[in-house]
Design brief:
Blueprint: H1 10-27, E1 29-33, H2 34-53, H3 56-65, H4 69-82, E2 91-98, E3 105-111
Antiparallel strand pairs: 1-3, 2-3
Helix pairs in contact: 1-2, 2-3, 2-4
């Protein structure tokens, strides 16, 4: 898993990253903090690369990481087809501003 402690225990961080990657692949666009986005992008790129590989082992690796079988199906059909000619760089981070409550830097992460 990607580095960046995010102020959490290892178990909590792993769960948060898995959930946020699943959400990104489902919705293709999410809003989160900049620190989480940097960790998210690294893992999301790995999942899309697995989808492009398309073999059974890659599907099982994706199922072990992602929380939703429907998202894995989407990853291996729609997203793999969409990015088959692209050599990485599947995500984009757009800075949005600061969150009102704690002034955390907010970004929008989307699939290109």
């Amino acid at each position: 898993m990607a580095s960046g402690k995010l102020g959490m225990t290892a178990e909590h961080r792993k769960a948060v990253v898995r959930n946020i990657v699943t959400s990104l692949l489902r919705a293709e666009k999410i809003e989160t903090t900049e620190a989480r986005a940097k960790v998210l992008v690294k893992e999301a790129e790995k999942m899309i690369t697995l989808g492009k590989r398309g073999d059974l082992h890659a599907r099982r690796q994706a199922l072990a990481f992602l929380n939703d079988e429907d998202v894995v199906t989407k990853l291996f059909t729609q997203l793999a087809e969409k990015y088959k000619d692209r050599q990485g760089g599947y995500t984009r981070i757009i800075k949005k501003g600061f969150r009102r409550g704690d002034a955390a830097s907010m970004v929008i992460v989307e699939l290109v």
